[in-house]
Amino acid sequence: MITLAGISHHTAPLAVRERLAVHADEVPALLQRAHGEFGAASLVNTCNRLELYLSGEHAPAAVLDFLADELHAEREVIERAVQLRHGPHAVRHLYAVASGIDSMVLGETEILGQVRAAFSATVAAGADDAVLSRLFHTAIRTGRRARVETAIGRHALSVSSIAVQQARALYPDLSVATVLVIGAGEAGRLAAESIVEQGVREVLVANRTVERAHDLAEQLGGTALPLDDLDDALAQADVVVTSTGSPEAIVGVPAVEAAASLREGKPLLIVDIGVPRDFDPAVREVSNVAYYDLDDLQAVADRHSTLRGEEVGAVQVIVDAETERFFEWWEQLQVVPTISLLTDRAEALRRAELAKTLRRLHLDGDDRAHVEELLDGLTRALVKQVLHDPIATLRERGDRDIYLDATRTLFRLNEPAGPREDQ
């Protein structure tokens, strides 16, 4: 009833994830194609994960072929990088993601908004259905419960807070630092905001679209620059936060070497959270340059996750309870059509037999109305009592598939209703 095909920091290194990245502008079309191929579909697309959720059970080969085509990747690469989950395993995974216990940074809070945004994109693309709607709304509820009922989100560690840590390690007094933000997307904005809140000297924002650069610069209290001025901005900056969504690196080693030569030995911190990466990773070899990509940030996060790791068990209890709750809803969803068919079939038979009996009595006027009222009440009560226990059993039994099949067979509910001969 739910199929998940996911790529994350657990299944593939950054070098592979950036090859399989989907730009935000491409998501609506991908969702519509997935909807045409499989039915309802949603995509959780962040810097650390690309997870396709499909309503229904789908063959692994078909899903992997679809992803290989969409991501322009070899099938062998997709098979190595993608983890497939079905049913309760897929539901439990999304709940764990929303709760922050599957994140690169344990307990981080940004993922909850990203899960919400993923389903909003699904609705906007017209690729949703009742099952996916229920799944994502309950995932958001699970994430909120985890943060309210456990300490998983206390002293929250996130990509943004790690960026602040690295900036403070290089510049203990950030009031003397200039921050350069490259790209105006959500991930870069959050990281930049965290650093700027520490009280920096100056903020520069460079983006392909100058209007978006102006908007973000206004939010951060900084100055907007066109990307053409990036070389000069690198020479001015002390801390760079970059996440453009570009399909390839936009800054190479020569540009960073040139900037470093103008800095008179001052260190330069580059926090590259782009997927694909915005800087050539080889810039980490340039003197006086500290370069961190997402894999580097994960290593930092791993060193800080011990205390919050103690809360994972408590969050898992919530995740398991919500997963069970989802499947109770799902099973009821399966039961309702059978109960409706059963009650409709019984009502049709009751009405047919009542009409037949009234014809045989040859009553007219008030006598007919009186007898019809009595027989209608009698037969209605009788049918209700006869069906009460079977319907209660269908709703209560855990092994409902067996009972659903048996009910449909015994009452021939899969066959069209028709007139019955008198016995």
Write the layout of secondary structure elements.
Layout: E1 2-8, H1 14-19, H2 27-38, E2 41-45, E3 49-55, H3 60-70, H4 75-81, E4 83-86, H5 87-99, H6 110-124, H7 130-149, H8 159-170, E5 178-182, H9 186-196, E6 202-207, H10 210-220, E7 223-226, H11 230-236, E8 239-242, H12 253-261, E9 268-272, E10 289-292, H13 294-303, H14 306-309, H15 312-361, H16 365-396, H17 400-410
Parallel strand pairs: 5-6, 5-8, 6-7, 8-9, 9-10
Antiparallel strand pairs: 1-3, 1-4, 2-3
Helix pairs in contact: 3-4, 5-7, 5-15, 6-7, 7-15, 8-9, 11-12, 15-16, 15-17, 16-17
Could you characterize what this model shows?
Helices cover 57% and strands 12% of the residues. The protein has 423 residues and is an alpha/beta fold. The chain folds into 3 domains: 2-149, Beta Polymerase, domain 2; 159-301, NAD(P)-binding Rossmann-like Domain (Rossmann fold, 3-Layer(aba) Sandwich); 332-410, no CATH class. A 6-stranded parallel sheet has the order 7-6-5-8-9-10, with helices on both faces. A 4-stranded antiparallel sheet has the order 2-3-1-4, sandwiched between helices. Strand 6, helix 10 (210-220) and strand 7 form a beta-alpha-beta unit. Helix 5 (87-99) crosses helix 15, helix 8 (159-170) packs across helix 9 and helix 15 packs antiparallel against helix 16. The radius of gyration is 30 Å and the shape is elongated. The two termini are 43 Å apart.
